[in-house]
């Protein structure tokens, strides 16, 4: 369910006509719906009702301050993976006791800055990281609350590049060595064990891998408690998949996911943390673009649009499917033609869709690339010296530019030419 629907033949974001936004802001731009973000966040809080819990938005998926503030005001915590993300979360008003720090490569600088400013928990991913954190914390006279991220050796059955819970993946410590490492952690100065963390991958379309992983975490919780550790929090990660194709794929619902959590770890009396990103932001955002040319050659048709792989890299990077719809609703039964929807970037990989059946479109027409709210704007770059794509947030019948498009002069002004050249 999202709030990008046709009304009187025009694609709306809530009660805002997207063609009007395009006229004001120019194209391409990302547009997010407040109502959809809110709804998706609430699906998780409803799914965990009755359990002590904190939903930490995986802000790597969509980290604009306005989006973070909207979610923070609803009670969200944040899952951060860098000092930059931590700073964004704090700037958006998220209190430190709602921020968890994940990631395999936290530097000592990041540890000390976040420890001094306040943090709910570090999700520690390796023994060297544990040793470094102990040194940093004890050097500051502070205590770092930690959960050890365990690698349960479970295949999330998702795209290879976003599966994180198999033995060969770089994430976490092998679950069969966890007891030994917890014993070491609890003896280290500056470290306080508070829980266990697991995250097995992203865009999971079946609950079974979660079930397997959470079952292993439940067994580990009991074993660690028997050894005297105070395991009071379980961070179960993110990863619940979303429908990318309207009407076709139906991944499990947050309510089913909540029931699974209750079934696997609900009896342990732990505070539950989850880190969803994509399910909250993915279908709450679209990328609006304008057709530059329709190029026809030897029976092949390319719809060349003004958004490129630098603005939305998911199709180029993962072969990801995104539905693409015109802003003007096509007449029912209109004949479609198969086109490759491509951007202007100088790579053949700059392709949003191949042989996609689209209604007739011409130069100047507007399209929306759907399901682009997560891992869209955050992964954008200035490749081909294309200024960073702007972001817009809609609420009811009004919209705001929440990140303006930089001018070309602003982009150039960041470079420095040394005087010896
Ligand atoms: N927690 C941790 C530790 C993570 O690494 C991630 C995602 C999440 C939570 C959130 O997962 P989600 O609920 O969003 O699935 N760029 C890729 C996705 C990378 C996911 C990275 N980690 C894509 O566009 O598909």
List keywords for this structure.
alpha/beta, nine-stranded mixed β-sheet, binds ligand LLP, eight-stranded parallel β-barrel, globular, 421 residues, single chain
Helices and strands in order, then pairings?
Layout: E1 4-7, E2 10-13, E3 16-17, H1 18-25, E4 29-33, H2 34-47, E5 53-58, H3 65-73, E6 77-80, H4 83-91, E7 99-101, H5 108-117, E8 121-124, H6 127-140, E9 144-151, E10 173-174, H7 178-186, E11 191-197, H8 208-226, E12 233-235, H9 254-265, E13 271-274, H10 278-281, E14 285-297, E15 300-305, H11 314-318, E16 324-326, E17 337-342, E18 351-358, E19 366-369, E20 391-395, E21 398-403, H12 408-413
Parallel strand pairs: 4-20, 5-6, 5-13, 6-7, 7-8, 8-9, 9-10, 9-11, 11-12, 12-13, 15-17
Antiparallel strand pairs: 1-2, 2-3, 4-14, 14-15, 14-19, 16-19, 17-18, 20-21
Helix pairs in contact: 2-9, 5-6, 8-9
The protein binds ligand LLP.
């Amino acid at each position: 369910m999202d709030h990008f629907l046709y009304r009187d033949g025009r694609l709306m974001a809530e009660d805002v006509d997207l063609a009007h936004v395009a006229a004001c802001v120019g194209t391409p731009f990302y547009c997010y719906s407040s109502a959809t973000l809110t709804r998706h966040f609430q699906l998780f809080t409803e799914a965990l009702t009755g359990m002590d819990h904190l939903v930490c938005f995986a802000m790597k998926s969509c980290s604009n301050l306005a989006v973070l503030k909207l979610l923070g005001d609803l009670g969200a915590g944040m899952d951060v993976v860098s000092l930059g993300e931590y700073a964004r979360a704090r700037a958006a008003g998220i209190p430190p006791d709602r921020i968890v720090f994940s990631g395999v490569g936290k530097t000592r600088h990041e540890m000390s800055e976040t420890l001094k400013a306040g943090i709910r928990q570090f999700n520690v991913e390796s023994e060297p990281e544990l040793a470094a954190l102990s040194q940093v914390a004890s050097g500051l006279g502070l205590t770092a609350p930690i959960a050890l991220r365990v690698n349960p050796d479970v295949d999330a059955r998702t795209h290879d590049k976003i599966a994180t819970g198999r033995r060969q993946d770089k994430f976490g410590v092998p679950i069969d060595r966890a007891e030994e490492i917890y014993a070491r952690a609890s003896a280290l100065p500056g470290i306080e064990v508070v829980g266990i963390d697991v995250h097995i991958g992203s865009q999971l379309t079946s609950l079974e891998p979660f079930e397997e992983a959470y079952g292993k975490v439940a067994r580990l919780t009991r074993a660690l408690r028997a050894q005297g550790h105070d395991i009071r929090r379980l961070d179960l990660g993110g990863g619940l998949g979303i429908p990318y194709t309207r009407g076709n794929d139906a991944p499990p619902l947050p309510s089913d996911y909540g029931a699974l959590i209750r079934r696997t770890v609900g009896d342990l009396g732990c505070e539950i943390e989850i880190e969803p990103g994509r399910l909250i932001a993915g279908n709450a955002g679209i990328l609006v673009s304008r057709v530059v040319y329709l190029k026809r050659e030897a029976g092949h048709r390319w719809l060349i649009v003004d958004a490129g792989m630098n603005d939305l890299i998911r199709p180029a990077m993962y072969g990801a499917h995104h539905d693409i719809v015109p802003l003007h609703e096509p007449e029912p039964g209109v004949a479609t033609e198969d086109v490759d929807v491509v951007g202007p970037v100088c790579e053949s990989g700059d392709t949003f869709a191949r042989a996609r059946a689209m209604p007739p479109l011409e130069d100047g027409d507007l399209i929306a690339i759907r399901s682009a709210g997560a891992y869209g704007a955050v992964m954008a770059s200035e490749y081909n010296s294309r200024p960073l794509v702007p972001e817009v947030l809609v609420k009811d019948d009004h919209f705001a530019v929440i990140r303006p498009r930089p001018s070309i002069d602003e982009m150039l002004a960041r470079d420095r030419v040394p005087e010896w050249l």
